[in-house]
Design goal:
alpha+beta, Hypothetical upf0131 protein ytfp, 7 strands
Length: about 230
Amino acid sequence: MPPRIMRLTADLVARVPPHDGTTGLVTTRTDRPTDADYQAAAAQLLADRPASGEVWVFAYGSLIWNPEFAFVEERLGMVQGWHRSFCLGWVRIYRGTPDRPGIMLAMDRGGSCRGVAFRLPPDAVEDSLIPLLRREMPIKRDTIPARWLNVRTAEGPVRAIAFPISRSNPAYLPGLTEEQVVHALVTAAGERGSMAEYLHSTVTHLEQRGIHDRYLWRLQDLVADRLAHIPSQ
């Protein structure tokens, strides 16, 4: 079977107006966790590590193509009871601003999710976990947005740290229309780039690993169609 060809290309992604660099910066926030907060979060998670001592991280989105933490092994894997959904917003840092808010992928309840499990170095688990927590927890919260999940892999099951969304999270956006999601993906951009670039990279790297997500594939098609009507920069 020939590879599927994405309609959302790098040239179309480049049509999204770039972030102007003045708003939506993480460094301007006053509600960021301290080093001690991250160390405490890591200790809390590691207290529940499996008896094997192995620490895996399950990636379903940008962690697949830009993990920013050390690992010594990766496996394709699947978690049951969760699925990818653009339901985390409205994002005003990273890939959005107050004027052009974005919406991020999360793992929401129901269905299943194929992704990548990364095993952290056994001699540097905490040193690898803290950069991950800094990335996934840029803003101070009352609870850690991470939990241990069972991941099925071809080599056998593993327990992995994952970041599914809680439906009690005030940033959880249930019931968004497809048009609302597409509009955010077409317009939002921040200090880490645009939402269209995020979608393009995620779909590209999933497809490269043989993971076809029909939900994301439809979104890339719709975003491409919208961006095709925007003049090149």
